[in-house]
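User: Fold this, then the next.

Assistant: Folding the first:
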Amino acid sequence: MFFLPSKIIGFFLAPVHFFIFLAVIGATLLFTRWKTWGRALSIASALALLLMAFGPLAGLLASPLEARFPPPPHDMPAPDGIIVLGGAIDERLSASRNRPTVVDAAERLTAPISLKRKYPSARLVFTGGSSAPRGSTYSEADAVQRFWRDLGLDQGDVLYERRSRNTYENAIFTRDLLLPKPGERWLLVTSAIHMPRAVGAFRQAGFDVIAYPVDYRTSGDDGLEFPRFATKALGLVEFAAHEWAGLVAQRLFGKSDALFPTP
């Protein structure tokens, strides 16, 4: 019930989409008796898109999220298992091309390979079904299984959770699959910008995890960051805004015990 409305609302309220729609409305109003409103909406939308594309907004939104959970030390004790969240596969292209198609969050899939080789006795679990609004017969887990197999990862003890459609379902279904015992150490691998929301969901599900952030999008340096490419900046604004909105929604709907989870 929560999944489909969140997809629809997220589509229309995504910052870039929102201001494009607003600009279209403003341009339309220029041909009516509400020209003043049309001019104001058009100018405001253009300025907002310029700020997102060429200003420091992307970094300002993303940096606090990425800095929230630092990576564990390199000499940490060996974990009992490694949980990898979906979000690195384009399901539609993977299905149509019949091969795994990785998006720009590829480190979500490459980092676990290194971790598995470093900690061979740790159990490896991937969680991710289909995020398509109407569902799909082809899950992200299917593509990841093939991707890891093609890279030579031993599939003997790898588990795949194929039902989850969002972060909270990742937590619930993975908990039910693994039935973690008290005292076990489980690493959670996902994009650094997504880690606060992911940890909040797992904690609410009663599954204590150790954050292992990857796929950083900001430098972590002090000061404002201005983008080199407008398309990347717009994408980062969308990603960060989605995460902030997700944190608020999770808290409001009881899917996290904190608005901004702490380490």
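Now the next one, as you asked:
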Amino acid sequence: MGEMIRVGMADLNICNSPNAITTLGLGSCVGIILYDPIKKLAGLAHIMLPDSTKVKMNENKAKFADTGTDLLLDLLLKAGAGKSNIVAKIAGGAQMFAFSSNNDMLRIGERNVEATKEKLKLLGIRLLAQDTGLNYGRTIEFYPETGELVIKAVGKEKKII
């Protein structure tokens, strides 16, 4: 059993087997896993917002779905992942408030998910599985050895995708 690498909010990191990678408390944020099953190399980005182009002075690329995914992909390729092998899994993007609204700020979770999927499509990365939306936070752990994404949420069964 390797070590568990923690990724904070608006941050990203990569790991390879036998290590695993985790991020806590994904609410409206989305956890993006990029994974090369042949090299058993994975990366996780904990993104908070869908689109960096709406923000001047974007210092933190890991915060946004578009730049965060690019940065994560670059790190994996530099570490030896094969571009054509890389697949994705995503989790998070919850609607953390009880009321539904068309107000974009309140739909942030949904927009994060949409932006992430759009970006993966642009990069030609296949999305294998997702656990997104609904109204609860998630903690995720990804195991490059098996390709399993374990999703934990308070009061819910543990889920593996």
